[in-house]
Amino acid sequence: MKSDDLIITIKKEISAIKDIVNLNILKIKYLGKKGYISSQFLLIKKLNKKEKINKSIIINSQKKQIKKIIKERIKEIKLIKNNKQYSNHEIDISLPGKFIKIGSEHPLNYIIKKIENFFVKIGFKIVIGLEIEDSFHNFDALNIPKYHPARTEKDTFWLDKNILLRTQTSNIQIRIMKKKKPPIRILTSGKVYRNDYDNNHTPMFHQIEGLYIDKKVSFTDLKGILSIFLDFFFGKKYQTRIRPSYFPFTEPSLEMDILNKNKKWIEVLGAGMVHPNVLKNVNINSSKYNGFAFGIGVERLTMLYYNINDIRSFYENDLRFLKQFKLNNFI
Ligand code: DAH
Question: What is the distance in A from the centroid of ligand 1 to the CA of 181?
Answer without folding.
Answer: 22
